[in-house]
Design brief:
single chain; flat
């Protein structure tokens, strides 16, 4: 009983708002010192297009395993936040893992494992490739890479702006939760039953905080947009000279070429093994 209470206490400590905020901000801004973050965004986007699309059209198990091992290694190199990896695991299980359990419960046999494994590898590979790329690039690099490939300026700016809104969003969320705590009367949580009631209470508060969060964030977003308009953002977004200066920082280095070469070599070896098998 004491072990269960200690476990529940540790879980509740980990689920604090400060912990969630730190994990989100770390994933968006705290990976600038990794190998993936130092690469050219154009190279990363090309790499992502391959591992984000090709696995969907291939059903060969050795090839999918090889792709999964590669993107798993790049995810470790990107030093992704633990919260993101936890949500990734929950998402993969909710999409494919439960199918195996349901199939076995309703009369299925071991023959369903191989098809479900193929589906799981596809979802996992694409998801890890997305996590690697979008966790390893800061907002400016991502926007510049998209702009270089000819994406509309407003689209690239919107993605960068969404990243920059994360700190404001988390700050507003914390302020709203603090106001609910000041006005509310949370249940006692010294014992296991109280801890469960307290967790349910926290979930209700988060649900009730959604509307004021969106309202307050919209107000601050409007102020930001007005400031950008005053500074001439629309003109800067379509002016060729400004775009040239903005994209001048992009440069393909030897590390980028080495990364692409290693990825290509790994895929070539995977295809060879798959052919021989």
């Amino acid at each position: 009983m004491k072990t269960v209470e200690k476990l529940s206490e540790n879980i509740l400590d980990k689920l604090s708002i400060d912990f969630l905020r730190n994990q989100v901000l770390k994933n968006a801004y705290g990976n600038n010192d990794t190998v993936i973050a130092g690469m050219d965004p154009r190279i990363l986007l090309v790499w992502y297009l391959f591992f984000g699309l090709v696995p969907w059209f291939v059903n060969d198990l050795p090839f999918l395993i090889g792709c999964f091992l590669l993107v798993a290694a790049t995810t470790m190199m990107a030093k992704v936040a633990g919260l993101v990896l936890f949500l990734f695991g929950v998402g993969v299980f909710s999409q494919t893992g439960y199918l195996l359990i349901v199939t076995l419960l309703f009369g299925g046999d071991a023959s369903v494992i191989a098809p479900l494994l193929v589906l799981t590898l596809k979802v996992t590979t694409v998801s890890l490739a997305s996590i690697t790329v979008f966790s390893g690039m800061d907002p400016d690099k991502l926007a510049n890479g998209l702009m270089w490939y000819g994406c509309p300026e407003r689209l690239s700016f919107s993605i960068s702006y969404a990243y920059r809104m994360l700190p404001i969003l988390m700050e507003e969320f914390q302020n709203i939760l603090l106001s609910y705590r000041l006005r509310g009367n949370p249940p006692e949580h010294e014992h296991l039953g109280g801890k469960i009631s307290y967790l349910i209470y926290q979930i209700k508060v988060i649900i009730h905080s959604f509307y004021p969060l969106m309202l307050n964030t919209a107000k601050r977003s409007r102020t930001t947009v007005e400031v950008l308009e005053i500074k001439g953002y629309r003109y800067a977004a379509v002016n060729k000279e400004v775009k040239k200066i903005k994209l001048a920082s992009l440069c393909v280095s030897n590390n980028d070429l080495l990364f692409l070469s290693a990825s290509f070599l790994w895929i070539a070896v995977t295809v060879l093994i798959s052919t021989l098998i």
